[in-house]
Amino acid sequence: MTSWGLIVKNLFRRKLRTFLTVFAIFIAFLIFGVLSAFQKTLTEPPQGPSATRLVVTNKVNFTQPLPISYVERVKAVKNAGIVSHMSWFGGYYQEPRNFVVSFGVDPETYVAIYSELALSDAEKQAFIKDRTGMLVGKKLADMYGWKVGDTVPLKSSIFRQKDGSDAWDFKVSGIFTNTEEENGDQYVVFHYDYFNESRSFGRDAIGQIVVQTRDPAQNDATAREIDEMFVNSGAETETRTEAAFAASFAAQLGDIGFIVTAVVGAAFVTILLIAGNTMMLTVRERTGEIAVLKTIGFTARRIFAMILTESFILALLGGLLGVGFAYVALGLLGGMGGGFLGAVKLTPSILITAFILMALLGFLTGFLPAWRAMRTDIITAFARK
Amino acid sequence: MALLSQIGAVTSMNIASLRQRVWPSLATVVAVALVTGVLLGFLSLANGFRATLDGTGSDDVAIVIRKGGGGELSSVLGREQQQLIAEGPGIAKGADGKPLVSGELYIVVNGVRRSNGIKANMPLRGVGPNAEAVRGAIKIVEGRMFTPGVAEIVVGKGVHEQFEGFDVGATVRLSGTDWKIVGMFDAGGSAFESELWADVTLLQSVANRGSSVQTMRVKLTSPDQLKALQDYNDADPRLKLDVRSEKAFYASQARGISDIVLYLGWPLAIAMSFGALAGALNTMYASVDARMRETATLRAIGFGGLPAFVGTMAEALLLSAIGGIVGAVGVYFLFDGLSASTLGAGFAQVVFSLKMTPALVIQGVILALIIGFVGGFFPALRAARAPLLAAFKAT
Questions:
Q1: For the segment B220-267, what is each residue's pLDDT rounded down to a tens digit?
Q2: Region of residue B136 (left: phi > 0; alpha: psi -120 to 50; beta: else)
Q3: From CA B78, how far away is CA B73, in angstroms rounded?
Q4: Minimum CA–CA partner of A98 in chain B
Q5: What's the confidence (pLDDT) of residue A46?
Q6: Is the predicted pLDDT of residue B178 greater than 50, yes or no?
Q7: Domain residue spans in chain A?
Q8: Which contacts of B3-11 are long-range, i.e. CB under 8 A and separated by 24 or more positions?
Q9: Across the interface, do B279 and A20 touch by the CB < 8 Å criterion?
Q10: In chain B, what are the domain boundaries?
Q11: Does B266 reach chain A within 8 Å, measured CB to CB?
């Protein structure tokens, strides 16, 4: 019988024990996969255009407004290509619980900067021309059944019209999907001017300025240049990339990294103990057999390798199942999180880490038992019987 | 009686023999301890957050905000509305005979968190002269209160713990103005301790808010006057605002986040329990198998199956109970009272402390005992059914 045959036979000799050990490892890798994917999405800046666009916000906090006059001054910066701006509307549809992520924007520059929004040229033109026009993300449009040409009243939880009403009527000019981000189509944008002129307070203030730079490699210098321009003015600014802005937002929820590391760490120490313990038990039980194998000529090294292989197989089996299930579970959870979470996925780097952990687990749980098996003394082993 | 003494004898044999299986037993204890620890970590997080918000606000203070969703941050009350509310019924009067109301601004500013150097939203509250009288439980513990009309700030205790650069005597720059920190206040562990307070009139001009405020706090003569004030508000078309008891307002804010933590904590702990259960089963089966001859011998000399069953169960439950207690004690020493902060419903950080309670410890130990029970049950069955022949078989 080959070593390999013996290993397989050994693994399935105590089916229940093998099953339980693999199950424990499976759970640990499932937890690892799901939590790491969430951590990645929440804390790592996305790639794509948002990594190179700059956002200028009020330094006090991004909820504080900037004067609209800043837009022209930012345009004068040498590296500034297209400059646009957006303002938070705090919108909802019919009921306050039907919260709609909504911004007043400068239409022409907005569609020029956000090239990842898939829109036909006709829709773009219609939006730019119609003062009450609004672009709607496909997911939102599907949710509320809005179609191009519909007039949709949106209420604001912050602003009022001069006549005291809190509803603005918008006409749907186009429906977009986001080619960069799976869930990046759950908001609406409309003309800032239409909203600005009719609101009863906060006039001529904007939320943030978005800058598409000519040379993204110069972004750091450009950001500094913009911020220095407004030092000691009434509204000092803070400029960073859109991606960094998004990441800083998630960081506010709490120390996600610490929580994930702590939970995954606890799960792996648990599994290390369980799997290591099982391997120890297994080898102890087989002391007699190992002595027999040695007697019939198996080298110590071969026995060492066999035991270690067994623990590697256990780790790999449980690990692959766990990561596989994490993949399925994340697919099922995909719809959750609304527009605030991007797609939660297992990235290559998570998979690589998972394989490293499997190898580590196999080695750590197998080494000591394998060492012990290798050192089994034939005489004492038989004497014990 | 004979049965009881048999049970006692087998149980003590089981427990005594633990010494021969120190490492496997210890592995089980630690695995159970870690599972309990993870569960209790999350529960104490949720519990601490809830305790802070539940302890914020009182029944005899009404909070007035704009209707239409959102909290303090998106609310706006004009001057006329402020005056109308102050004329409302059921409002307590101050020493000067004027109604005890406080119009307040709620602005979000950046602070740098001590733990990881990340910028986070902090609430800067502009308060009027009545703010302390309306709330009651505000105590200056260091320095003094700000002087109205001067760019001075007092900081909550929680702010000072969690954020950098808010020591009394320091200066912070907000909205192009340098504010001097002149005092620190204690608000009885409530969410107000996560806030910075400044003079509302000065903040209105710095933040270009004119004479508008965002919320009004109203001291009621008694909690049941709330209804009268609500009716008064609903009857006046110029008002139509949202009038709620401050306590209810904060309690509703607590729900969302502590629910998320619970929904995260329990599934994780349960998933991990299955892992630990697998470990416990392995250990216990091994323990039963190792003693198979001994058990069968006992059966042969007249012991029943039940004592063998109980003995194994007792061993499993003892191991898991130790694990549960170790986990709970560990969490208590590592995390209890630990200060943390998260983004609250007001779009700003709420500072709170992780809080363990006996009720949580009981939940953790119950989870541990369930692992022990299931992990012991099946191996115990095997022990109880030990075939008599096993006594004579060579191992």
A1: 999 999 999 999 999 988 888 899 999 988 888 877 777 877 888 888
A2: left
A3: 15
A4: B69
A5: 65
A6: yes
A7: 3-45+254-384, 65-234
A8: B3/B304, B3/B306, B3/B307, B6/B303, B6/B304, B6/B306, B6/B307, B7/B306, B7/B307, B7/B310, B7/B311, B9/B307, B10/B298, B10/B303, B10/B307, B10/B308, B10/B310, B10/B311, B11/B307, B11/B310, B11/B311, B11/B314, B11/B315
A9: yes
A10: 2-54+253-391, 67-240
A11: no
Tens of pLDDT along A131-151? Answer: 999 999 998 999 999 999 999
User: What mean pLDDT value characterizes chain B?
Assistant: 88
Size of chain B, expressed as the number of residues it contains: 395
User: Cα distance from A235 to chain B (closest Cα, Å)?
Assistant: 6
Q: Considering only CB atoms, which chain B residues are within 8 Å of A255?
A: 115-116, 340
Q: Does A336 touch chain B (CB under 8 A)?
A: no
Give the separation between CA B283 and CA B23, rounded to whole angstroms.
Answer: 10
Does residue B44 register a pLDDT over 60? yes
Q: Is pLDDT at B352 greater than 90 in this prediction?
A: no
Radius of gyration over alpha carbons of chain B, in Å?
A: 30
B37 contacts A266? CB cut-off 8 A: yes
Q: Which residues contact A231 (CB under 8 A, 6 or more apart)?
A: none
User: Residue B243 in contact with residue B61, Cβ under 8 Å?
Assistant: no
Please, which residues 110-169 of chain B have a Cβ atom closer than 8 Å to chain A? 110, 115-116, 118-121
A289 at interface of B, judged by CB pairs closer than 8 A: no
Total Cβ atoms within 10 A of residue B380? 24
